[in-house]
Automatic annotation (TrEMBL):
Belongs to the PC-esterase family. TBL subfamily. It comes from Acer negundo. Its main location: membrane. It is found in: Membrane. GO terms for molecular function: O-acetyltransferase activity. This is Trichome birefringence-like N-terminal domain-containing protein. It is a single-pass membrane protein. The chain crosses the membrane at residues 12-30. Keywords: Membrane, Signal-anchor, Transmembrane, Transmembrane helix. InterPro entries: TBL (IPR029962), TBL_C (IPR026057), TBL_N (IPR025846). GO terms for cellular component: Golgi apparatus; membrane. Residues 101-155 form the Trichome birefringence-like N-terminal domain. The lineage of its organism: Eukaryota, Viridiplantae, Streptophyta, Embryophyta, Tracheophyta. It holds the Pfam family PC-Esterase. Residues 157-439 form the Trichome birefringence-like C-terminal domain.
Amino acid sequence: MMQRWNKKRTHFPLIILILLVFIVCSILYIESSIRQIHEDSDHVRHDQEVPISHVKPNLPKSAPKDLDRFTRCNSTSKYSGWRNGWADPGENSGRRSVSSESCDVFSGKWVFDNTSYPLYNESHCPYMSDQLACHKHGRFDLRYQHWRWQPHNCNLKRWNATEMWEKLRGKRLMFVGDSLNRGQWISMVCLLQSVILENKRSMTPNAQLTIFRAEEYNATVEFLWAPLLVESNSDDPVNHRLGERIIRPDSVLKHASKWEQADILVFNTYLWWRQGPVKLLWSTEYNGACEELDGLGAMELAMSAWADWVASRVNPHKKRVFFVTMSPTHLWNREWAPGSEGNCFSENTPIDWEGYWGSGADLPTMRMVDKVLGKLSSKVRVLNITQLSEYRKEGHPSIYRKFWETLSPAQLSNPSSYSDCIHWCLPGVPDVWNELLFHFL
């Protein structure tokens, strides 16, 4: 009996070992099977998207009617997965061409310079916006006007208004986008207008399109309100604060009809995509049935429709196209001063932490934009203003502004609720964006 028991004991560890090997092999097999299932499903989904989910953007006269602020969705469903199958720029285009310059002008630091800056006086620009005229509306610390962007290993081309006009002679320079791009346009007009005689310049507001003209140079500097790039119900430059944002994700043709004759185009879009879900009303939909998608996904659709227009319509030898990356916000000062509770109000110096990145600049959005622009090769020059603007927490209007009405005493005493930490005071940060544009022109 004891001998039989000893024989069983000698086999017992071997049985345990075999069982453990079997369990490990089973787990590895299951994990491998799951991975294979995901790969197979991804492959099937990719194969199925081509005939089912890709649509050709920017088909002329395909939409039943233009969107406006009165447009409504008759119904809303989940996003179907349709994608814009935009034009391939060509096999030889590759990624964006690498600049031959030895210096990255977007990498540097802000240097206080009260000798050369500001490049113009706020009160001397008759086209200044009350929303951006911070000194006029009570900001007496003017240090924000005296910062110069200094790249690490080189110098930016020094601003020269007359030279810029010569670059623009006989041409149309158009900024297209949202209120941040409008701020850059106002900055450009203020930078340029002083060398033009008063009776030889004019500003012609035309609702969605506003034009500054210099007769001597037969040139215009224009702004087109198109905050989402594609056609939307928010295209009215005044009445665009709507509860439901609706876009045609596959069409820029309404806006392109206004911008296509410009010689130099400066585009931006970003802020409006961060305000919640977006309704999609495809150009082929005649019954008002919308789909809903998150802001980043909707922005990617819009960028693809815009990229299709660039890829198929832009000859880089005849037309210059620039895309301005996202302008960061500074809504929570705890991000650069841990333990603080506030925003950009009362800030008076830039952030000196190199590489600082706050929540006002979204990395997934930057990666998506880079992916889209990367396919456009040399047709688009990127003005990467995001990192350099991240440092300028003190450059926003805060409470020193007028938006329709001047802030009331009660609002002025509550900067945590009424500070504008999105737009930029002028003179200020957008002037540097335009110096970068001048540098590349």
